[in-house]
## 1
Amino acid sequence: MTCIIIDDEPIAHHIIEDYAKELKDLTILKSFYNAVEAISFLNTNKVDFIFLDIKMPKLKGLDFIKMLTHPPAIIITSAYEEYALEGFELSVTDYLLKPFSFERFLKAYQKVAQLKTNISNTNVKVDAEDQSIFIKGDKEIHQVNLNNIIYLESYGGYVKVHLNTQKPIVVHQSLKFFETNLNTNFIRTHRSYIINKTYIKSIKGNLIKLQDNDLPIGKLYKIHINKLLEN
Amino acid sequence: MMTLLIIVLIINIQADFRINLFLFIFLFFGFVFLFQWLYLKKKTSQLQAMQIQSELDLLKSQIDPHFYFNTLNNLYGLAKRKSDQTPEAILKLSQVMRYVIYKGKESKVSLEEEIDYLENYIELQQLRTNKDIKIDFKKNIFINHVEIAPLLLIIPLENAFKHGVDTVLNDAYIDIILIADESKIQLEITNNFEIDSANEFTGIGLENLKKRLQLIYKDQHELKVTKNNGIYKFDLLIHQ
């Protein structure tokens, strides 16, 4: 697995680097002292997860997460307890309170590794060209063209894939998985929704109008909507 | 005739008695109210003193706990790599803690003790970063012994790190000038900060400092804070 470190304190880097040496299949691709530099790196490189500090100059860790359209798994490392709630709302995988032991570090690492194996199980498979997706639902494997997906809805431990061609398919997978693996045409707009940009008719206040229904915009995801206008 | 005399006498006696009774009741309640008033007055001033003390204690306790956890994390990292810096850093941290825990309870400490504390704090903060921070601490102390309320001067210094140094990517600086003479103690702190992050500045530390100054050095201090083009300036004057 690959990861990067974002923390403004050098000693915090040392601790993680030393721990990572103990794990054979973990590679730190790069370490950053601020989140701004990490953004451009993430635009051109794929990483499995990030060790992320919260209090940093220029761009704070939680704002950094909100800015990523397809965030990898995130392990927060902080001396601050009080951001844990917001962190988990942004679906971070784990939250390490500094200073943390190797055992605690290992636990966080295993959580990420577990997440990755869940993803690689065969319920959902995105094809190489990003054109279609194989979804296992109702004991049947459906091939769905990405253009036909209107939006995805979180549904307990499942995700409901709403299509314009047939009735929704329910698949045992996390919304997070789709968020990380679908192309940039899909944006997370709410804790429970990912929307295909093509189907947006209009945006008014905190509502997105699609073909047949209106979906709310989550407070934390507003930044994704604002980005639509920037490009 | 006789009966008339007796009646008049009785009325007279009654009137006399009535006046005495009124006087007695009046004086009795007068004393009751007076004592009650004195008692209440004493009680309120006691309460007020207690309130001021607990307010001061509360305001004092608002020192940022994250500093300790961040420092401990750095100590942990240093110790793990068996760095030669470890023992020195542990001593610095214990001095800081001793000062906060014990000296912080006293109403006045010597200015030197507060200065030692500020210097230890600065050195521990520098341990945290690999940035080139320019910290210039000028001390112009012209008298041998001067006292100050503890943990006052740390607040603006803490802010200079938290809202200044920690927000700037490069070329962070803090200039500190401390002057003490017969008539005053003056602290001036100038630091740069990232303008974008200024909105995060809630100023709780500064508000608490103002309240504490009001309680300890009422009509005896001047505080001026200016924020201009990414430069923050704190100026406190305490008249002796």
## 2
Amino acid sequence: MLRYTLTRIGQAVLVLLVMTVLLFLLINLMPGDPVDNMLEGNPSLTAASAAQIRELYGAGVPLPVRYWNWITAAVQGDFGYSSIYFRPVAEVLGPALGQTLKLMVATLVLSVPLALLLGSLASLRPGGLMDNLISFFAFASISLPNFWLSLILIIVFAVQLGWLPASGTPLETNPPIWLEVRHLVLPVLVLTMFFVGPLVRYVRASMIETLSSDFVRTARSKGLSEPQIIIRHALRNALIPMVTVLALGFGGLFSGSLVVETIFGVLGMGKMIFDAIRYVDFNLALIGLLLATLVTLISNLLADLAYAWLDPRISLK
Amino acid sequence: MMIAAPASVAEIQDAHSQASGAATPLLRVQDLTIAFPAAVGREAEVVSSISYEIGAGEALGVVGESGCGKTMTSLALMGLLPPAAQVDGAIWFDGRDLTKLSARAWRSHRGRDAAMVFQEPMTAMNPVMRVGDQIAEVLVRHEGMSKRDGFSRAVQLLASVHIPSPERRAQDYPHQLSGGMRQRAMIAMALACRPKLLVADEPTTALDVTVQAQILDLMLELQEQHGTAIQFISHNLAVVSEIAHRIMVMYSGRIVEYASVGDLFANPLHPYTQGLIKTLPEMGQPGSDLYTIPGTIGGKRPPGCRFSNRCPLADAGCRQAEPALREVAPRHYVACHKVN
């Protein structure tokens, strides 16, 4: 188990290294020159100082050398300077990462138990009233556009009822926790709604399959009650395939909540990566994208470990 | 002709026989009919008005091809029929009619009064739960044992079905056991609460022939020890004859012949039973072709006798009226127009 984990970590590092090369190449293929961008915004800059800046940023140096310079600095914790925030990348990334983690954790804590509950309930009588209602909710969750739902929720809860703030981040510096929670309610609601639909469908399908399996019939023949059969026998087995779905969703949630972050004014990873690419902030975009890669790798590793923990038939060697 | 007795009459009879001290059989199935809402191209009635008995400690073998209704009959005894099934008739077990049980009463019946062993030991156990825990679960449910006591009892039970190193096996997960061992563990689970009736649905079919013999030996041994009544279902007449006292041959949802093992083999009366016995390969006759009964059981039932479209003796009369199950010799019943 330990050896397996170490091997997997080794592989993850390798994948991450390959990704640095790919991302570095891709970022450098992007149209637009960062120094040109800087000069554009500052007409008083002279040609001489422009050349100086170019040299400072290493514009004339060949690509492999630039990559080498960047990667050696990066492994030492120097991620460079963000050209749109005029601050070191690490300082910009920290708060964005914090915001995204808050959104992600709250969304997962809400949507996973909700999906298990709704999916299981729907599976008890496929085609029944409960199943139809839950399936309707799930399809609504899958089909409703994020931005539309966000706007509707803002109109109803922030504008008309005035119960909740329309933005995802409080204006105050060092706000109290309850205030932060109030601001997170709407964006987390939208993300949960977005995340929970497919999960419900997977749980339902997986539970229907498990409930018709032989060992559930055996559990019934022992005289166990339905809740015992469902929780002790069916759910754990039905959960095993769910792990993959969750791991995939994890990566998507990390960098994919751009729309929600934009509407609610949350400066999270999605919005930060998007801005960095849009305004040709090489350093920020590189580290942001690498972080997204890292999260996907880690969630996949955790998924494999969870598999072995849930299913004794899988032994990790 | 077995005339459908109204439930009230059956109850009076039952009360009467109990009051007079006459031996009431442990299980008495009366005019049991199991039907499903008709699906296209399938018969709605999978079991049609069958009646039989199992005495305490008796082993009844149920034989027939796939689709004859033998599995549905056994599921009915456990209350495990699919929810869509419509059940008519009565199943008297130990003085009460199982068809009238509430969901709660069914749960205390299952596993305690009657237990079941299934065909596929590979899939019949929960893959993510230790074997010992799965056995202990029945004891915790019905005997009110603690989990820990249930587990140590499970180890004893595994030993009683001759599983080597039972302490270690109880800690194992099902996939770590061989097919034969898993079926032994299933039997240990079924017998954990000393049920009065064990329903075994093709318990040896999925196993190797040598393992099959071991499991049959084990079931015989346990039956002698505990006096458990058994309903043993199989498509294999030879396997059933190893364990059963009486045999019930089913065809297309009906009982066609019902007799003691000796009578059935010495004097098979129904053409279907005769066909089944002929299909048994004989030892020491190399090169002889295996006998098959022509046709298959599926499809639309013919009018009259349900076997008439495959029967070598069938005539016009057979295609008109369904034959009733008659007692033609003491405790030897057959349903065929051609038997006098």
